[in-house]
Each structure stands twice: as C-alpha cells, then as structure tokens.
Amino acid sequence: MRNELLDMGCRQLRDEIAAGQVKSVAATEAVFEAVEKYEETIGAYISTFRKQAIAKANEVDEKITAGKKVGLLAGVPIAVKDNMCTAFGATTCASKILENFHAPYNATVIEKLLAADAVIVGKTNMDEFAMGSSTETSGFRRTVNPWDTSRVPGGSSGGSAAAVAGRLCFAALGSDTGGSIRQPASFCGVVGLKPTYGRVSRYGLVAFGSSLDQIGPLTRTVGDCALMMNVIAGYDQADSTSVDEETAPVCDYLEKLDEPIENLKIAIVPQFNAGADEQVQKALRDAVGTYKELGAEIIEVDMPHLDYAVAAYYVIATAEASSNLARYDGVHYGHRTDNASDYIEVYSKSRAEGFGKEVKRRIMLGTYTLSSGYYDAYYLKALKVRNLIRSDFTDVFEKCDCIMTPVSPTTAFKLGEKVDDPLTMYLSDVYTIAANLAGVPAISIPCGFDEKELPIGLQFLAPAFSEDRLLRIARMFEKQTDWHKKKPVIS
Amino acid sequence: MQKKISRAQVRNVAKLSRLELTESEVKEFSGQLSAILGYMEKMNKLDTDNVEPLAHCLPISNCFREDAVRESLGTEKTLANAPQRDGDFFKVPKIIDSL
To answer: Coil, helix or strand for A139?
Structure first.
C-alpha cells in the first residue's frame, strides 16, 4: 500500500506540518519507504541522506512544537540534482571524474532550501555534467521513466523528474542549459520551470554552459513551482551573473497565482510546431482550444531564426563546456590517473579515464569550434545567430504575452534508442534550447497523453523576468484540466 | 557541403583538449563530429554581416563589490579533495627534467 501522504502537494504538506497536523518525520519516513520499494526500479538517486533527513525533519517538528516560526518549505522532503554542491555527501555530476568529490560548501540554492526548513532527501541522477537528453550518459546508473520503465525519463535532470513523478520526493531542483528541466518534466508528466537567466543564483552549480545554465524547480503542480521559486529566486552577491532586485525585483510568485491574465494573448509558431509528432501537435491544438475557451486570443507568428537554434546552441554550449571542463586536471580535485609518466599525461589520462563518451565528444566539439582558424566560422557565427534568435523573441513579445510550443517533438523514447546517434539526440532539443539562448523563462506543464499513455508537455515562453505572469498563464490551464492529477503506477 | 574531420584533425583537437583517445574513439569521433559540424554549417545560410555577437543576455554589465577582506575557504578545506598532496601543496609530477 502506498502512503497517501506522498500524493500531497508541497504547499498543503508544508501547511499541515506547520499546523502540527502532519509530522515532517512521517512525510520523510514515507519518502524513504517509497525509495526502498521503488528506487531499485526507477534509479532516480545517486545518493540519499536518510539519517540526516530524519534528523532535519525532527528538528523542524520540534521547532513547530515549541511554537517557533518555520520556513516556506518547513519539513517538506526535497531532492536536488547532483550538480549542485552540498557540504554533505558527494557532488558527482554523475561523472566518474567527480566520484569522490566532497564540495567544501553549499550552493546558494542549497542554503536557501535549508533556510526555508526543507528536508533534503538526496541527490538525483543526471546525464554526466548535464550533457544529454535522456539521463543515459550518467556514469553511475540508469534512471527509467516511472510511466514506462522501458523508456527514458528525459534529461539531463531525469533523476529529479522521475523522483517527483514517482513520489520519491515532493519537489526537486534541476538545472536547465538547453531544456534539461523542461524536457524531463514533460517526459515524466510534471511541471518544470527554467527561470530567466540571472534570476536564481548559480553559485555552487557545477558549470556546463555558463551563459545558458539556470537552476529551477520540478514539481507536480504550478503552485508548488511558484512556492519553490519563492524560496530560490533572488540576487546573490556570490554569482556575478545574478540580477539585482533593482534591475528586476523578485515578487511573491504565489500571491496572484490564481488570478487569470486578462486579455491574454498567446502566440504560436505554426512552421516550428509542424515538426512534432501528430499526437504532440494534437495536444497542442487541444490546449489552444482550452485557452480560447478561457477568452485568450491566439495569434500566429513567424520566428524566422528559430530553425537555426540547435546549430547555434550546440556550438555555444560545447564551446563553453570545453572551457569550463578544463578545470578537471587531476590536480586540484577529482580523479587522477595512476599511470602518468609526465605531467601532460596527468591531464590527458585522468580526463580520458574520468569522462564518459558524451562529455568527451562535447569537449572535442567545443575545442574544435574555438580553435584557431575555426573560431569565426563557428563560434562567432553562433553568437551572431544567437542575437538574431533573441531579436525574434523581442519582436514577438511586442505582440503577445507568451509563446506556446511543444516541449519535445516526441514523448519519452525507449532506453538506448538514441544513445549511439548524438546528432539525433541533439535535434530532440529543438523546442527548448531557444529559451536558453535568449535567456527568457520557460515552463513545461502536463497537457495530455499519447496513445502509449505517455505524458505530453506544453511549453510557454515569456519575456525575461516575467515568471509571475508565466506561472499564472500555466495555472489558468492547470485549473481547467486534470492532467497534473494523473500519476504513474510503477510496475 | 559536409565537412569531413579527418582522424589526424581529431587527434590534434584531442591533444588541445588534453584528452587521450583510443584509436576506436578517434574513428568514431571523426564520423560523428563531421556529421554534427556539417549540420552546424546551416548557419551559413544566414547573413550576419551586420549582426553583433551576443555572448549573454543579461541586462547588467560590470559587477563590483567592496574590496574588503572576507573569510575564504582555508588551506585544509581547499586541499581536502586533492588527489595527491604534500603538506600544504598540491602534488604534481616533476615538470622540468633537469636544472
């Protein structure tokens, strides 16, 4: 029998814990019972912290009994992707090169979760260094989709998405460089938000593509997503790319969540959507119908440069990755080879032994496009194309509140299906990467199922720093539909 | 149109990347990188002569803070993850053979 507590939303659970009606220890125990039972099948976690989590839950329960004030996530069991530094346990990025790395400090988001009295239950599996769209490049284990265990959970935050969908936590943090929160959220039937670049501190997030990476929540409802944003959003002096409150104030994302946006205008990009599977397109058409019933106006727009987003993205992301991953030198931390005969081999053998194939491939690509003679043709060209893509967004946002697209051209694919074909895997990111290139926020919410009963996701993109409106737009749909209430039966 | 990356080029990029590749990896990457770079060349269809490169999307430029003394990590924590250390130092193989 499943513990009914596990189906509770974060907000309700937090309120009941704060009111003393439910013990955080009970919720935390329920999570670990589920982990014991289903984790072998799902494989969502790289590490779990049972003892520490129960201790934290007890501490929160005692605070409440003593009548002390508690935080926004009081006693709520939360999972975090294993590329966020924690001063407890290991931070592996699902890479052998960091297998034994123990970060000396907490990432800012971890500090914020702890300050909000959240209970951190574990660190989730991911594609190695967040490079992948299926979680299959993890150096440690396989994560499967709770809706169909023969399929991928998506990636790179696949462990976080599977843990949220499979009731192995109440909410999770992921990171999104080109869709790594939204695509797994869509494959696993949960809500995933990539905030505006600069909205959430990246301090302590292991870098992949520094101009693209952003941390965000994966939750079961839009409301829980807003709650998580209330905890993690905001300026951080430790991250020089975090945006100050004067430039863009952080608001209470829950305050107006249930108020529909008046005179809502949604743009769709027909030429772009045509590439998705028929069932994904049908779900999108149904969503258009839902919004029309709600009084929204739907306009068709052209975004002429979107077609070049995958090409530009994989130049920029791999270039930044090749530079960021130069730090794994076998000297300061991480794996060091036993077989080096000179200092060059300390680097080249440690890296050869520690990195998996996809990471090597991307380092190679990035190094190539940054190398002398190719820089202008690839890297500089991609930065210019990036500017054109951003202009497409600026132009369209003058005419509408948001853009609606699929999240992924397909629903969850089979394990192993694309693993040997990197270009096909990259092309599956076609709908998500433009948001990272343009720095704008984007959300994925459940909007239906295909004939195989696999979840389909709906994506909204909105202007920079308008997460409050983006969440309200998503909430309008959620109120009208039941998709978010469906849950997988893990076999 | 497709640009073929030869195995020699792959070996050179691997050297720049400080990655020791096996011969089978060299062969595999030669094919895969050619296909991926070939795809990327579709960007050439766009005229970008008068377009500025965009490195990031932030509405901010320089970020300064007070140049004040603050607590830092400390020697022990900094060296705690070192694969090899010697006292307060990271240990590496000899770099200069003879002096």
So the answer is: coil
Read off the pLDDT of each residue in A65-87 and give the average, rounded to a whole number: 98
> Which of A180, A186, A350, A444 is an active site residue?
A180
CB burial string A367-398: b at 16+ within 10 A, e below: bbbbbeebeebbbebbbbbbbbbbbbbeebbe
Identify the residue whose tokens are 């912290």.
A49
Secondary structure (3-state) at A399: coil
Q: Classify residue A7: in a domain, yes or no.
A: yes
The answer to whether residue B13 is domain-embedded is: yes
Inter-chain touch A371–B44, beta carbons under 8 Å: no
Query: How many domains does chain A divide into?
Result: 1
Q: How many domains does chain B have?
A: 1
Distance from CA of A279 to the nearest CA of B (A): 27
Q: Note whether B83 contacts A382, CB cutoff 8 Å.
A: no
User: To the nearest whole angstrom, how far is the Cα of A311 from the nearest Cα of chain B?
Assistant: 5
Domain span holding position B17: 7-44
Residue A486 backbone class (left: φ over 0; alpha: ψ -120 to 50; beta: rest): beta
pLDDT, position B93: 87
* B5 backbone φψ class: left, alpha, beta (φ>0; ψ -120 to 50): beta
Side chain identity, residue A270: P
In 3D space, the residue among A434, A420, A449, A126 whose CA is nearest the CA of residue A280 turns out to be: A449
Classify residue B71: in a domain, yes or no.
Answer: no
Asked, for residue A295, whether it belongs to a domain, the answer is: no
**Residue linked to tokens 């030669």:** B30
For chain A, give percent helix, strand, coil, nearest 5.
40, 15, 45
Q: What CATH number has the domain bearing residue B37?
A: 1.10.20
The residue among B2 and A480 whose pLDDT is bigger is A480
In angstroms, rounded to a whole number, what is the distance separating the alpha carbons of residues A402 and A442?
Answer: 9
A32: part of which helix (H) or strand (E)? helix A24-42
Cβ contacts of A355 on chain B, cutoff 8 Å: 19
Is B87 within the bounds of a domain?
Answer: no
Q: Is the pLDDT of residue A246 over 50?
A: yes
Any domain includes A303? no
Domain membership flag for residue B53: no
Measure the CA–CA gap between A232 and A217, rounded to whole angstroms: 9
Residue in A closest to B46 by C-alpha: A385
Let me know: does B71 contact B40? Beta carbons within 8 Å.
Answer: no
- A81 catalytic residue (yes or no): yes
Nearest partner of A445 among A489, A404, A414, judged by Cα: A404
Closest alpha carbon within chain A to B79: A332
Q: Please indicate, yes or no, if residue A279 is contained in any of the structural domains.
A: no
Sign of CA dihedral A147, A150, A153, A154: negative
Domain CATH code at residue A72 = 3.90.1300.10
Q: Has A156 been annotated as catalytic?
A: yes
Eight-class DSSP state of A416:
T
Q: What is the pLDDT along chain B (99 residues), one digit of tens a residue?
A: 345 799 999 999 999 999 999 999 999 999 999 999 999 999 999 999 999 999 988 888 888 888 999 999 999 999 999 999 999 999 998 887 755
Range(s) of the domain holding residue A96: 2-266+399-485
